[in-house]
Design goal:
The protein has 58 residues and is mostly helical. The protein contains three helices and no strands. 91% of the residues lie in helices and 0% in strands.
Length: 58
């Protein structure tokens, strides 16, 4: 509390800059997860379509 009172700008700068790398890592991991889910859904649709075609052929 004393640090925040004595050096307000330094305190806020530290508070803002400290979690920034964590937010960046979170954004990158979320983007990668989204891409992986999209690829998995595309593969599932492809497999389902293949199974439907096999069922039609029988």
């Amino acid at each position: 509390m004393l640090w925040a009172a004595k050096d307000t700008y330094g305190f806020f700068t530290t508070v803002i800059l400290a979690p920034t790398p964590l937010f960046l890592a979170s954004a990158i991991l979320s983007w990668n997860l989204t891409k992986m889910i999209e690829a998995w859904e595309k593969e599932q649709k492809k497999k389902q379509k293949c199974q439907e075609n096999i069922a039609k052929a029988k």
